[in-house]
Amino acid sequence: MSAKDRFHNVVKSALVQDGWTITHDPFAIDYGDVQMQIDLGAERLVAAERGDEKIAVEVKSFIAPSTISEFHTALGQFLNYRSALRANEPERIPYLAVPEDTYEEFFRLRFIQEVTQEHRLNLLIYNVKQEAIVQWIKLSNTAN
What we know:
Helix content: 25-40%
CATH class: Alpha Beta
Number of strands: 8
Mean pLDDT: 88
Order of helices and strands: HEEEEEHEHHEE
Shape: globular
Strand order of the largest sheet: 1-4-5-6-7-8
Strand content: 25-35%
Radius of gyration: 14 Å
CATH topology: Trna Endonuclease, Chain: A, domain 1
Distance between the termini: 26 Å
Number of domains: 1
Low-confidence stretches: none
Largest sheet: 6 strands, mixed
Structural class: alpha/beta
């Protein structure tokens, strides 16, 4: 089992405060001979006519010396998880959770924005001190 990210519980708490039910911690997903664990699985009843909204959240703290290196790792994980979800739970939408300060300082750089757009990287922006979600950026409607 992989180690939980430093802000795992912060994001978990923020999701609960935002009305989500944590269904998996971690969210294990198998694809053939490959086993992976996404940090969190959650769902929320949006409206009776829309049914359940389901997400899978990979939490990142971006506290290492090289933010671009962490981004490379996070992007690779996101793409792998999205592919596995597409095959196993296509209704579950993957998100990468990043701290608000990292989003403001790093994810607004032109190159990072272009990569994020190109790969349809869904972002969940969280405030560490408030343990709150401050923004959702959804670039894809499904796990596809």
